[in-house]
Amino acid sequence: MHTKRFLWFYLLLAFSLCAQLGFGQTLTISDTGETGISGTNWSISGNILTATENASIHPAVIEKALDLGDLSIQVTEEKGTILIQSPISSSKGHVLKLIAKSSIQVYESIKISGGEIYLSVTNNKIAKGSISVNSDISVESVSSQGGNILLEAKNITLSEKAVLTATGPTGGGNILVGGDWQGGASIENRVFEDPNKLKQATKVSMHAKAIINASATENGNGGTVVLWSDIKNSTSVTKAHGTIFAKGGSISGDGGMIETSGSLLETDGIVISTESINGKVGLWLLDPTNDLSIVDIGDGDKYIGESSIETATIVSALNSSDVRIYNPTSGDTTSVLGDIVYTGNNYLTIDSAGPLYIRGVDIQAGGISLIAKEEIIIDTRAVTLTANRASNSLGQVVISSDYDGNQTGTNRFYQALNITTNGGDVFIGGGNKDGTAYGNSTDWNGIEFTGLTINTNGGDVNIRGESDNSSGLRFASGTIINTSGGNVYMRGETEDNAGIYFVSDTSINSGSGTIYLEGYNTTSNSVYGIYTDESFNHTFQSSNTTTDAIKLVGHSDNNRGLQLYGDVKIYATGANGGITLETNGTSSSDHSILFSGGSTEILALSGPILFDVKQAAGATDLYKITIMFTLVLNQEH
Hints:
Elements: H1 2-20, E1 26-34, E2 38-39, E3 42-45, E4 48-51, E5 55-57, H2 59-68, E6 71-75, E7 81-84, E8 88-90, E9 95-100, E10 103-106, E11 110-112, E12 116-121, E13 130-133, E14 136-138, E15 148-152, E16 155-158, E17 163-165, E18 174-177, E19 203-206, E20 211-213, E21 224-228, E22 237-240, E23 243-245, E24 257-261, E25 264-266, E26 271-273, E27 283-287, E28 292-295, E29 308-310, H3 311-318, E30 322-327, E31 334-336, E32 340-341, E33 347-352, E34 356-358, E35 362-365, E36 367-372, E37 376-378, E38 383-387, E39 397-401, E40 411-413, E41 417-421, E42 426-430, E43 440-441, E44 447-455, E45 461-467, E46 473-482, E47 488-494, E48 497-502, E49 506-509, E50 515-521, E51 526-532, E52 537-542, E53 550-556, E54 562-565, E55 567-572, E56 579-584, E57 587-588, E58 593-596, E59 600-604, E60 609-613, E61 616-617, E62 622-623, E63 632-635
């Protein structure tokens, strides 16, 4: 008996000493707490409420202070905790910041109309401790834009009872859990000017029943929602399994932005929407790290494991948002291994800082961008890309490698590529995210096609490639391009071989659009500007009515500007539609324009045919040609 009494005495003494030393300090906000402006172990000075040891405060103390202005509540000890056990509510739109060094636990609601609620567990340098939300946190506004909810801690948990709301009739607010947009790195999209305002979390977990809503309710844009854990920390994980909305207003306004990112990212069961009834749809950004696989395993759970995203997740999100999947780590591979088939108008972007592999899949969305800082490779089976939206830009298809311009990647298509748009433009190139420049190759063709079929239904086609030691553009295994009125533009640059090299059957028909091909070879190693292989048929046809309905330009500083072998047919069938074949460069060792190895037909229905030879030829300017209808010869040396 005496032994038990002594044990209890020492336990009580130990707890008392721990409290005095600052271990286990707790500030409780409860209906049973103290009122006034000070109490046991707590006091208010200006707009700061400080608790030095265990304390209990009535919510009315906080609400009264918020009536007057912003309020910060802080516990001072290293293992201090703040517990919200009774509701806090204010209509004044001020800022409430809770600061602890161990944990903040929310068991009852915090509501500040149109204001800011900032929960922070840090040591002013890094995130520490934990935040657990088990109730409502709301900065909803009834008359203006929603406010801000900021959660900052090492570990953040949104339980099944968590509801975070930042809605407003004139715009959605901002809900940042674990960090700002891209951890604060994105100047364009981050909420706060200071990229380090929010310390980055290591673990963020959102329960499947949790809800986050930063939507506009009437006239206004949706807000910004971020669930972020430090992607540079290999142990970080973001588990986003709940419902997240950042919708545009019901009357007007665009959809907002949602980001879910982490070194390990789980999104199984997630429901997201950035839709807009009368504006532009918003964006969902997924930003995992390490090698990333996009797969379809058919079990419907929208998740398969570490650094993988199931295609069903992407399709589900596209139903109510544009989607951007971004793998940010240089050298990490992104692989698309499963079909992504979405029949609506929203846009899909797959963005890799490392190589991007598109492996035998069908990808269908409103518009599609496949972009990488390194190479883009199609290497197992044929790939089909379909853009649904009837818009030049929003219904476009973009494939662009080496978009940072560091000459670290090219487009290598070892299998057939099939592209169909509903009037959208097609850009295949590199050097930027739009595919309108060159991805330079130092050890391969600038772009190599092994079977290419494009049908744009009125959209333009733009293809650009550059190589230091092979062809700028190489077309093998059949090329068919039909634009039904869209323009076709190609430019290939090289320091060796051909600027543009057609080594298979070729059929390019622009309808009423123009065809303009430029092949440039610019060193002493130059061979050809544009080359068509003698073993195949090559047809270029346009019904455009301008004098340059079809224009082929070949530049070579050493050899032939245009070497048109095989059966070559160039038809300008529109009234007054013309054909121009131009060569330039310092010199040619023999012919500037050479036709050989087959039958050549150059037909202009009623427009001019111009051979514009600006390249000095060692032998003849034109070699082996039969011309039908109008010929205008312009020779310059």
